[in-house]
Design brief:
The chain contains 15 helices and 13 strands. The protein is of the alpha/beta class and 424 residues long. The chain binds pyridoxal-5'-phosphate.
């Protein structure tokens, strides 16, 4: 490959955009139109009675989701953030308690604790699959800890055995944040079924989408009932109650999904395995192309785990690559390949935590620390080692993967020239 780098004025490997996501087909359109035609757009009512738990499509979506996961209950929400908030309430975290979370995740994995006036405590992540590290979790446990939120980041399960072991020994609840990993397996069992409950996201960027939406799954009748109350204004359904009146028994919100979204979700959910398989096939193909490149580590897949590649991560070794990671990414972007340098800045470094902006902190009796350096692996991954792309998904093809591999090879072949020109 002798072309000049696009960053230095050459022709880019790729000029056309990658295929857009999500793909909405006729079945999705028909499902939503049928709901619109029915005139029942959201049958939720916040009083005890038949529609406290939503309408026909909501119940159908929940039933299918629970059956697929082999759990007793699934509860729809209008986002995974809402489901996370409900999960923190439903597993019984009191105000002022601590919840252990990873710092390398989307903001609401941690803010869901603040929403309930609990305090996020950050523990470092594993450097190969990027989920919570059990040793770091153990170190973060204090007498105030009540729960752990484990995230299956980028689509690979975290070290659940290690986390569940810490939880058991300290009597902590476990919430699995599966927003990025629907259908992923750990030791041949679906994620979301290991902890006290699991939550999923159907926002537009996710593997399956309802536009916005979320789901909580659990085997606990009590957690499911509580989650439904959080979702629908804190109403309590009392067995045999005849009176249909508003009588809030606890603090609740309106976290309800609409019938249109549920109808869309049912169709999308039917495609989950196929969509995941497409991601896995593309990722395996790309990893095979990139294997053996010195300085770039293709994604780790642990034994008896399924990676569903919500994003495709590469670990970058700046020393052997001999050019700064961010320059490498800039050169790739110029070749028409959308890669990002790092993911979310470790959450505790943001003003919300640095300046303890949430009022819950005024009443907090513990010592949660948010110092820079708190989670060195997450910081290192973010600042120097991780590069990511989100285009390894349907309807992209092997040809699209070839463009990614070609661009990476091209930048690597020209790295000395790149450094001579841009490193100064
Ligand atoms: C790991 C993780 N947790 C939680 C969320 C929140 O999901 P939602 O946007 O549905 O609230 C997301 C994505 O947005 C996520 O990636």
């Amino acid at each position: 490959m002798s072309e000049r780098l696009a960053l230095l004025g050459g022709k880019p490997v790729r000029t056309k955009p990658f295929p857009s996501h999500p793909v909405i087909g006729d079945a999705e359109k028909k499902a939503v139109l049928d709901v619109l035609d029915s005139g029942r757009l959201s049958t939720f009512i916040a009083v005890p009675g038949e529609y406290f738990n939503g309408g026909r499509k909501i119940r159908e979506f929940e039933k299918q989701f629970a059956e697929y996961h082999g759990v007793g209950h699934a509860v729809t929400f209008n986002s995974a953030t809402a489901a996370l908030h409900a999960a923190v309430v439903a597993v019984g975290v009191p105000a002022g308690a601590e919840v252990i979370v990873p710092p390398y995740t989307f903001t609401s994995t941690a803010t869901c604790a603040l929403m309930h006036n609990a305090i996020p405590v950050f523990a470092d992540v594993d450097e190969d699959v990027f989920g919570l590290n059990p040793v770091a979790v153990e170190r973060a446990v204090t007498p105030l800890t009540r729960a752990i939120i484990v995230v299956h980041l980028f689509g690979h399960p975290a070290n659940l055995n290690g986390i569940l072991d810490v939880a058991r020994r300290h009597n902590l609840r476990v919430i699995e944040d599966c927003a990025q990993a629907p259908g992923a397996k750990y030791e041949d069992r679906l994620v979301g079924t290991f902890g006290d409950c699991g939550i999923f996201s159907f926002t537009e960027s996710k593997t399956i989408t309802t536009g916005e939406g979320g789901m909580l799954i659990t085997n606990s009748e009590e957690i499911a009932a509580m989650a439904r109350m959080v979702r629908n204004h804190g109403e309590m359904i009392v067995e045999g109650q005849k009176e249909r009146t508003y009588s809030s028994s606890m603090l609740g919100w309106n976290y309800r999904m609409t019938e249109m979204e549920a109808a869309l979700g049912i169709v999308q959910f039917g495609k989950l395995e196929q969509l995941n398989q497409h991601r896995i096939d593309l990722a395996n193909y790309l990893s095979a192309q990139l294997s053996g490149l010195e300085g770039l580590q293709t994604p780790t897949v642990r034994p008896r785990a399924t990676h569903v590649y919500y994003v495709y991560p590469l670990t970058y070794d700046e020393k052997s690559m001999e050019i700064p990671r961010d320059l490498f990414v800039k050169a790739l972007n110029a070749e028409g390949i959308p890669f990002g340098a790092g993911y979310m800045r470790p959450l505790y470094l943001s003003p919300l935590y640095q300046e303890r902006r949430h009022f819950g902190y005024e009443h907090y009796a513990g010592y949660a620390s948010y110092e820079a350096g708190l989670c060195p692996v997450a910081e290192r991954l973010h600042e120097r080692e991780l590069i990511l792309t989100g285009v390894v998904r349907f309807p992209a093809t092997y040809d699209d993967m070839d463009d990614i591999a070609d661009a990476i090879q091209k930048v690597m072949e020209h790295k000395e020239e790149l450094c001579r020109t841009a490193c100064a």
